[in-house]
Design brief:
Number of strands: 7
Number of helices: 11
Largest sheet: 5 strands, mixed
Helix content: 40-55%
Order of helices and strands: EEEEHEHEHHEHHHHHHH
């Protein structure tokens, strides 16, 4: 991990996996620092957390959680924030409240790539709208839906796959306490959860990247299929890299 300087989470009262994607080597430079953040849910933010985010102009939030998750634990943000709900797959419940647990994390990620292309397009368009101003995207624990979005952004910018995999894999360590809470939620539903679902093995992101390449060739082609305009893709690549 030290080889690529995978960053520790920013110390906050209400999150465990809030990280700046800036600094990774990319095409012609590095990912711009202080602009693109990934995180777990923001429903426990403290006043200090909110003040820090506002001071650093991180006031645009892209919430990838399902509608049921948002209703149960809405993000704690102030009126100074711009908030977008862009619901994607929830491994605990689907939008009809039915149990839906994949056997492997990569199965979930591949499902996201195949069935949430409209949502992925919206995420990319919202980031383009920011014109390089800070944005944070998040789901519940900041590793699955968030991990897919981070992978797409970093790969589009030319970040090497091994760095993307390493960035993904640290979430398990960051989220230990949250995973324990999730395990209890599952147990209350009478469900035994495969340990892999509460982890972030590098093999799962590697398999996802392999699937993306074998199906679409590269991330740019995939995002075009999602409906992202060529002009927006070019803008996105420019604002990602410093």
């Amino acid at each position: 991990m030290e080889k690529w300087n995978i960053k520790a989470p920013i110390v906050m009262d209400g999150t465990s996996n809030f990280r700046d994607l800036g600094g990774y080597p990319a095409n012609g430079g590095t990912i711009r620092k202080g602009c693109f953040y990934r995180s777990d849910a923001l429903h426990r933010l403290s006043e200090n957390d909110l003040s820090w985010m506002e001071e650093n102009k991180i006031t645009c939030v892209l919430d990838l959680r399902s509608r049921s998750e948002v209703e149960q634990s809405p993000d704690r943000i102030s009126e100074n924030f711009t908030y977008y709900s862009i619901p994607m797959s929830d491994r605990i419940n689907d939008e009809k409240g039915l149990l839906s647990i994949p056997e492997r994390l990569s199965d979930l990620y591949i499902t996201i790539l195949n069935t949430h292309q409209e949502k992925i397009r919206e995420v990319m368009e919202r980031i383009v709208e920011r014109k390089g101003e800070p944005v944070v995207f998040h789901c519940a624990v900041g590793k699955d839906r968030t991990g897919v979005i981070a992978m797409l952004l970093l790969r589009l910018a030319g970040v090497p796959e091994e760095i993307i995999v390493a960035d993904y894999s640290v979430s398990a360590e960051n989220m230990k306490s949250v995973f324990e809470e999730q395990r209890k939620i599952f147990q209350q539903k009478g469900i035994e959860v495969p340990e892999v679902l509460l982890s972030s093995p590098k093999e799962e992101m590697e398999k996802t990247l392999d699937y993306l390449k074998s199906t679409w060739g590269d991330v740019e082609t995939y995002l075009k299929e999602c409906g992202v305009e060529v002009e927006d893709l070019e803008k996105l690549k420019k604002i990602l890299v410093a």
